[in-house]
Amino acid sequence: MRQVDVIVPVYNVEKYLKRCLESLINQTLSSEKYRVLLVDDGSTDGSPTICQKYADENPNLVEYLPKANGGLSDARNYGLQHVDASYVLFIDSDDYVESGMLERMLEKTLQRPKEGCGMQFLLAVSGQNGKRRRDGI
Fold it and tell me: Would the pTM count as exceeding 0.90?
């Protein structure tokens, strides 16, 4: 049974979209437990082609939902109309996630189902060499 639907609103992000989608389809969580809903909000660049390609190549994991442009909130709400999993996660199409993120979030959520699970992101750049540190969940 699918437990998580990940809604990804898409609008003219062809430059970033592949990295986002690769991070979502390569999760450690079993692909039977989640689905990625790509809500294309009327993109005019190459984003629709990328979305369709990923949906075609991953038919049991990725669903492509094109719609007329209505803005970010409208795209998220449209995605919510197609949810049938127990939990929903929104990921912006210009972001990417670590491979174990969905599995860890689901585990934390199931441990405390009344509280749910949130995440935060921290990117710290310091020093001359620009070393980066990322923290989450």
Answer: no
